[in-house]
Design goal:
This protein has nine helices and no strands. It is mainly α and about 190 residues long.
């Protein structure tokens, strides 16, 4: 099995945009959080979160991402269960989300972007100052973080079987625990 360090090497090899790296780290944090909550394999779930968008810069279109990244992951020895989760996080691949890990990855992907956006508009720029209520308030403003696909987030949490605001709180807690690594530790006063 590939280790987290090896997976991070793959990410750093293929991804130069630091915001994209931070997005993948945020999804990894959320996936590890859920694995712990559900008694699942934290390493496997973490790998799926960390690698889900590793090929976006080399395959920046739906015709190629993530399906053209799968052979790279296979060459690197990633477990097929991780590759299947990566493939299932994109609706257009036709790979159905059947396992809890696949559904969790889909549910954690988009919402991390919304939580990051909520953080970055706070004066402190610290995720520690964000609450589930502040996410809910920004959710209602459709002009805010318009790229965060709210319908997809709702569908994903439904598929995963977690209530939307409970899910937002879980992902927020996971991201707060990794604030510094995600670049969301805030600005010095």
């Amino acid at each position: 099995m590939t280790s987290r360090a090896e997976a991070l090497t793959i990410v750093r090899e293929y991804v130069k945009n630091e915001n994209l790296v931070r997005h993948m780290l945020a999804v990894e944090a959320a996936m590890r959080h859920y694995a712990r909550l559900l008694g699942e394999d934290e390493e496997i779930w973490g790998l799926a979160g960390l690698l889900h968008d590793f090929d976006w810069e080399i395959h920046p279109s739906l015709e190629h991402h993530p399906q053209d990244g799968a052979p790279i992951l296979r060459e690197r020895g990633l477990p097929e269960v991780v590759i299947e989760a990566v493939l299932s996080h994109a609706n257009h691949t036709g790979v159905p989300r059947q396992t809890r890990m696949q559904k969790a990855l889909y549910a954690c992907d988009e919402i991390t972007g919304l939580i990051t956006a909520v953080t970055l508009v706070r004066p402190s720029k610290s995720i520690r100052d964000v609450t589930a209520k502040s996410i809910k308030n920004k959710w209602k403003d459709k002009a805010f973080a318009a790229g965060a696909k709210r319908e997809e987030i709702e569908q994903a949490t439904q598929e995963f079987g977690v209530e939307l605001w409970e899910h937002a709180g879980n992902v927020l807690a996971a991201m707060q625990a990794q604030a510094q690594e995600l670049g969301l530790g805030g600005v010095p006063a």
